[in-house]
Amino acid sequence: MGDTMAAVQTAQLVFSIALGVVAVVVVAFSVFVVSTTMWGDRWARRSG
Amino acid sequence: MSTEAADTTGPATMCPGRTVGPSTVYRGRSGQWAFVLHRISGFLVFAFLLLHVVDVGLVKFPRAYNEVHALYGNIALRLFEVGLLAALLYHSLNGLRIVMIDFFPRAVRSQKQMFRIVLGLTALGTAIGGFVIVDPFLTGTLGL
């Protein structure tokens, strides 16, 4: 039982960390993409 | 994909350091933000898909599979799923908007209205789906 609990906790911990990493990467990517609207030379604002 | 807000009629725009052709320039406002949201939602869906492949692949290890999927009962993951639903809805609906503009170039004139419709349907679908996703947690009927 003890071994089972340890394995379960490990699987959940690993998955949670992976999910957290995905969340951080997505947020970082989002910040990057939004920031390109400020400095990217592919964007041009309307003059009027 | 690049047609949604591209200025295909005006002259090339001078940007710092180089000249950008008219077909590659987004003019800001709705078309620009539709593109930004499309890219972010696409990346979110792609990133979660990678994790999803892993957690479904755990089916070979029933205990780990069951316990990892038990995490989905967690309120944090349920809220994450609501965000994922919003991203999926937006990305798919905006994809249809882009396809429509690709097939019917004149539709670019209505791209702003279509963007509003996409946002409205996304909000509606997210509200309905989000309720279904979060409700079992609120009512204590998760069955875990």
Structure description:
The complex is a heterodimer of chains A (48) and B (144). Chain A contains one helix and no strands. Chain A has 48 residues and is mainly alpha-helical. The N and C termini of chain A lie far apart (70 Å). Helix content of chain B is 67%, strand content 4%. Chain B has helices spanning 29-57, 62-70, 75-103, 111-139, and strands spanning 13-15, 18-20. Chain B has a two-stranded antiparallel ribbon with strand order 1-2. In chain B, helix 1 crosses helix 3 and helix 3 packs antiparallel against helix 4 (111-139). Mean pLDDT of chain B is 82; it is low at 1-15. The chains are: A mainly alpha (48), B mainly alpha (144). Chain A binds chain B through residues 4, 7-8, 11-12, 15-16, 18-19, 22-23, 25-26, 29-30, 33-34, 37, 41-46, and chain B through 7, 13, 15-18, 20, 24-29, 32, 36, 39-40, 43-44, 47-48, 50-51, 54-55, 58, 63-64, 67-68, 70-71, 77, 80.
Topology, please?
The complex is a heterodimer of chains A (48) and B (144).
Chain A: H1 2-39
Chain B: E1 13-15, E2 18-20, H1 29-57, H2 62-70, H3 75-103, H4 111-139
Antiparallel strand pairs in B: 1-2
Helix pairs in contact in B: 1-3, 3-4
Task: Describe this protein with a few key phrases.
heterodimer; A: 48 residues; mainly alpha; B: 144 residues; two-stranded antiparallel sheet; 2 strands; 67% helix; 4% strand; disordered N terminus
Q: How large is the radius of gyration of chain B?
A: 20 Å
Order of helices and strands of chain A: H
Q: How many E-type strands of chain A?
A: 0
Percent range for β-strand residues of chain B: under 5%
Coarse shape of chain B = elongated
Shape of chain A: rod-shaped
Largest sheet of chain B: 2 strands, antiparallel
The count of DSSP E runs of length 2 or more, i.e. the number of strands of chain B, is 2
**Major beta sheet of chain A, specifics?**
none
What is the terminal separation of chain B in angstroms?
43 Å
Fraction of residues of chain A in helices? over 70%
Helix tally of chain A equals 1
Gyration radius of chain A, in Å: 21 Å
Oligomer: heterodimer
End-to-end separation of chain A: 70 Å
